[in-house]
Amino acid sequence: MLNSTTKWKSGEPSQEWLANQNYSKSAATTPPTWILQQDNDPKHTSKSTSEWLKKNKMKTLEWPSQSPDLNPIEVLWHDLKKVVHARKPSNVAELQQFCKDE
């Protein structure tokens, strides 16, 4: 899933986004099989987000700080940045569209 926002300054919007995903809706009735991997950004590790994840029975993968080299998605982000940069988006709408195209 690709989500784009410039408004997330705290954990609440990410909690809202997670609440709207199928995982949250099914976790109450079925054993959780998803494991959420996120970086150690403060909004992901805030007290409110940690409490929200626990309350909603969401498993998270423990992740060392400052370790992008261990995260396979970083390779994909790097490749996406190269391809999108080569297309030279001239505004945010083009940037978002080019990301979705790729």
UniProtKB/TrEMBL annotation:
Region feature (Disordered): 1-52
InterPro entries: RNaseH_sf, Tc1-like_DDE_dom
Biased composition (Polar residues): 17-39
Pfam families: DDE_3
Record-linked Gene3D superfamilies: Ribonuclease H-like superfamily/Ribonuclease H
A molecular function GO annotation: nucleic acid binding
Every Tc1-like transposase DDE domain range: 31-95
Protein name, as recorded: Tc1-like transposase DDE domain-containing protein
Organism per entry: Hemibagrus guttatus
